[in-house]
Specification:
This protein is mainly α and 164 residues long. It contains six helices and no strands.
């Protein structure tokens, strides 16, 4: 019981701790509002080296360059959408952790729901086939031979000598 409690406590501590950010002190902007916007944008941009981390979480040199670029664009007066548009024009749609819903990214947005619907349809068809085949299996027993039928009749009549 003590081991279980220790494991649960350890898991809660690990889950409860916040992620360490890779933003260095020399990157932080003096204006807190612009820094908050930069952090918000950094969480939406993919590190091109790590690929499953935002540039806000990545320690890669390219991620640092992208964080600095975002802050430079914000200092120049760009809006959040202008910064994202600039980075997409420079690095492509892959730089966004959540791709935009456009005609060329439609497959990314539609494939997961279509896969779920296809799986549900497949399960439904399988269960329908299986339930339709169940009565056929139950009634498909071969008829008894004449000897088997005679023995069954004797057993049913209560003839104790054939029960062994």
């Amino acid at each position: 019981m003590k081991r279980l409690l220790a494991a649960v406590a350890t898991a809660l501590v690990l889950v409860g701790t916040s992620a360490a950010y890779a933003v260095q002190p020399d990157e932080i902007m003096t204006d807190p509002a612009k820094e908050a916007r930069a952090r918000e944008l950094s969480k939406e941009l993919r590190c091109m080296v790590c690929q499953n981390q935002s540039i806000d979480d990545s320690d890669a040199p390219l991620a640092k360059d992208l964080r600095v670029l975002v802050r430079e664009r914000l200092a120049a007066g760009d809006s959040n959408s202008q910064v994202l548009d600039y980075l997409v024009a420079r690095y492509g749609e892959f730089v966004l952790l959540r791709p935009r819903l456009e005609w060329h990214t439609l497959i990314l947005w539609l494939l997961p729901p279509l896969a779920l619907l296809g799986g549900a349809f497949g399960l439904w068809r399988y269960s329908r086939k299986r339930s339709a085949a169940a009565p056929e299996i139950a009634t498909a027993a071969p008829p008894l031979s004449a000897d088997e039928q005679a023995r069954l009749d004797r057993l049913m009549a209560g003839n104790a000598s054939d029960r062994t």
